[in-house]
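Q: Hi! First time doing this. I have a protein sequence and I read that you can turn it into a structure. Is that right? Here it is:
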Amino acid sequence: MFGVIIGAVYLRVGVEGAPYELVEKHGYYKAIFATVLCLTAFYLFDLYDFIVMHDRHELVLRLVQALGLAWIVLAISFYAYPQLMLGRSISLIALPMALALMVGWRISIHWFLGHPDFGERILIVGSGNLAVEVARQVLNRPDAGYRIVGFVGTDSELLGKSLINPRVVGLTEDLDKIVKREGIDRLVVAMGERRGQLPTDRLLKLSLGGEVSIEEGATFYERVTGRVSLDMIRPSWLIFTGRGRQAKLATVTRSAVHRFVALIGALLSLPIVLLTAIVIKVDSRGPVFYRQERIGKNGRPFVLAKFRSMRVDAEKEGPVWAIK
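A: Yes, that's right. Below is the predicted 3D structure, encoded as structure tokens:
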């Protein structure tokens, strides 16, 4: 983003005028300010979450929304503090450039991660339904950057057999040897029944040796799909995936950003709000807003307020389904 703004300055004022705009008029600092706003908007719209990457339409939509939000904040900042303004037409030049370059960059990453010659080599510990489901989700998301080498299980009769596409490449008793032989980067433990079958000693040895990353199947599944598999979770998973201090700080920061953006949206939509309130008053008698108690996060009740679109007595006998 910083480079895009600097490039827009050169396109707008030329090579001779750019040093004056960037140095004398503090253009570099202004570009840093605009870049920080854009990065914040990208974070707000989850553009650093690779789950969005698999849907290019969603990617472009979120990029447009994030850049639009950043430019709205920039416009308000320029109006409040004119000294922050980048210069005439520079923002208008930088916006389409940024959109085109970022879409191209993200699509390039999408292609790179989906290339079969790249990615993290995965070995799934388990050969049951849970292991197959994890493999299926990874195969559906080649852009995630994971390449499944195969499965290891406890049933010798499954050796060499294909469970979905990768095959069973060995037994859990040979886990450490298979990791070295296949150059495994990550082990995903997805065993349904673990009592007496989980190769605890070998997993512990590999973990302490730092040769390979080891991840719980439920956690890996959630990271790849963005969903929680109810068949995979156990009480231990709920305990060890609890929110830490960093997660709480991120939640507070995200909430503050959401409230700030909501405030900006409320200010920008104020004319529409006033017009809507007038139309409702003219159309029918009664209050402009309809209020109703709802249940929110952690079961906490809150009062929802929205523009009234029904008659005042529409639910005098209790809530009803909408009709013509």
